Amino acid sequence: MPESHRRLPTAASDDALIERSRTGDAAAFARLVERHRVRVLAVARSIAPHAAEDVTQQTFLSAWLALGRYDATRGSVATWLCGIARNRSIDALRAEGRRPLLARIEDAAAHLVCQEETPFDVVERRTAAAGVRRALLTLGPEQRTALTLAYYGGLSQQEIQVRTEVPLGTVKGRTRLGLRAMRVQLGVAA
Q1: Does domain 8-105 have CATH number 1.10.1740.10?
Q2: According to the lineage, what is the superkingdom (predicted)?
Q3: Cα–Cα–Cα angle for 137, 138, 144, nearest 5°?
């Protein structure tokens, strides 16, 4: 019997399935899809609910085409697939001319779906978010507006320029100075 048609052990690890898939074993890849479809679909729904099914299919197609680039030392197969789903979801939003909210992506996709979050993780994330909000309130209104539009509104610097009706260089300066002030407030190294 050809190697690609052999039955896979029921408890095959994700890494073993990746290795088998790299040799063209479609059954091994189908097992990965079956194992991670719900998680990938949840990421897609949390970011681009209107395109979640398409994003899920695109995610697994991208994964199949990129099997050679998967590196187990950089994270698990689940994390890799969730990252692809996140990127495909953002692509879907951008294709429609919409940009995602940074907070929504970070909270929904990265923390709630791809990682098993403990109550301590939730408290830590919420505490960090509250610290960011407090630090944002210490900024002047121009810097606060630039950062809020960029990071919570998902706008590019050019879009902020149009919205605020100030020169692009001013928007860039406000963003840079605001980020610098936020780093100081939060005690984060530059």
Answers
A1: yes
A2: Bacteria
A3: 60
Single pTM value for the model: 0.49
pLDDT of residue 96: 65
Mean per-residue pLDDT, 127-131: 78
Q: Are 43 and 86 in contact (CB under 8 A)?
A: yes
Domain segments of the chain: what residues?
A: 8-105, 117-190
Closest CA to 143 of 167, 179, 119: 179
- CA dist., res. 133 & res. 139, Å (int): 10
The identity of residue 124, as a single letter, is: E
Question: In the chain, how long is the greatest CA-to-CA distance?
Answer: 71
| Contact status, residue 109 vs residue 86, Cβ threshold 8 Å | yes
Q: For 117-190, CATH number?
A: 1.10.10.10
Q: What's the pLDDT tens digit per position in 51-67?
A: 889 999 999 999 999 99
Residue 116 contacts residue 147 (beta carbons within 8 Å):
no
And the tokens for 181?
Answer: 């002030």
Helix (H, G, I), strand (E, B) or coil at 45: helix
